[in-house]
Amino acid sequence: MLFFKKNKKVNVLKEIYSKSTLSRYFMFLAGILIVAVSYNVLILPNNIVYGIGGVGVIFKKIFNIDPSLTILIGDILLIILSFVFLGVEKTKYSIMGSIAYPILVKLTEPIVEIVRIDTTDILLLTIFGAVCTGFGLGLIFKAGFNTGGTDILNAIISKYFKTSLGTSMIIIDGSIILSGVFIFGASTIMYSLIALYIISILTDKVVIGISRNKAFYIVTEKPVEIKEFILQNISHGVTLIDARGGYTNDKEKMLMCVIPTSMYFRLKEGIHFIDENAFFVVTDAYETSGGSVE
Known about the structure:
Blueprint: H1 9-18, H2 21-43, H3 51-63, H4 67-85, H5 88-107, H6 111-114, H7 122-142, H8 150-160, H9 165-184, H10 186-207, E1 213-219, H11 223-234, E2 239-244, E3 251-260, H12 264-274, E4 279-285
Antiparallel strand pairs: 1-3, 1-4, 2-3
Helix pairs in contact: 1-12, 2-5, 2-7, 3-4, 3-9, 4-5, 4-8, 7-10, 8-9, 9-10, 11-12
């Protein structure tokens, strides 16, 4: 009898996320506060365009709309799309970040009047803003949450058009960055691309490693249960490999799967929850071929 039935998978995730709840929420709030302050102090004033925050930058310039309002409306619409196309399980971990981020962007607006920064060196400000943003996002992902936004569109495109997550990011974020060229000029695309690259590197580095995807190699006495957990809760494929212990010479099963870095925390804690004696190795997966990692 399988350990994970359909009606059990939500309970498993609840058990995982109930551990160290206070520290996880503190990490989440710290990360989202860093991202919001960086947006107001360094990203918005220099017209750096990427993600849903980039749409806020563009709308402020054209229509003089408060960026926090643009981000909030955009996040709500994307959450609705996520429920329709990705389902409840993949959506619920985006709701808190999608609401908290625009609220903190609004609440931290007065910091701009307090913190006076010399804006003559835009490149330096772009790099520093990207580093702060990437670090903050890394904390958010490490706590098991995300900020929603264009990540939802990336996941939808990846799922329904069978593209990699990296390709989806290029399509969505690339389109937003290109639209900034017509509003702010050609130099904007260069600064925005620099920021986007640094943010992606720092985000993954804070979570674990430096690549977008992680490869898990898992040796466990409960391969069927862990396989079901990966299929139902991570929504990614997994391969069972026949293995033999080098010391004992006993036959055993090894599971191998490749997942996005943002799913690292969920899978790691899931493995520990199912089999606390499981042995697993995590490596950076710099390139995947023959399938898609959502």
